[in-house]
Design a protein that fits this description.
4 helices; transmembrane
Length: about 150
């Protein structure tokens, strides 16, 4: 009788472990999907911001270029046209960020860094662990209790 009960309990325990493992896996997959969706939304907002900024900067650049060109021709001073050069670099950068391959090139460079220069990504004192977080939490908790007294 005890053997049958023990065997049944072992089977229930194994079934429960499998269920918990499956549940943890589903939870992690959902967490990964949620984080990826948040990342995609943040990137979409950044690209949208770049496109909106480009509209305003494009208008400013056009007016500034027109004004500086007219001023340089009327006064016969080509030096007045000089600010157009750095302003055009900013315009091209914004165009590339908003509509070009900037994001793709940035992603490729990030992949190179992650594969070939992984040491640059290390955090000071390494990756936080459960133990280090608990140690800091306990230290803060004991400090808070000492301050309350």
């Amino acid at each position: 009788m005890g053997f049958l009960l023990s065997k049944s309990m072992d089977q229930n325990f194994k079934n429960q472990q499998e269920f918990m493992l499956l549940n943890a896996r589903l939870q992690m997959e959902r967490q990964i999907m949620m984080q990826n969706q948040m990342r995609e939304r943040q990137m979409a907002m950044q690209i949208a911001w770049s496109r909106e900024f480009l509209k305003y900067y494009g208008a400013f650049f056009s007016l500034a270029t027109f004004g500086l060109t007219v001023g340089a021709v009327r006064r016969k001073k080509p030096g007045l046209f000089a600010p157009v050069i750095p302003l055009s670099f900013i315009l091209v950068y914004q165009l590339d960020m908003a509509y070009g391959t900037f994001v793709h090139r940035m992603r490729e460079e990030a992949e190179v860094i992650m594969t070939q220069e992984h040491g640059r990504l290390d955090l000071p004192h390494g990756t936080p662990t459960f133990e280090s977080i608990e140690k800091a939490r306990r230290a803060k908790s004991s400090l808070s209790s000492l301050l309350e007294k």
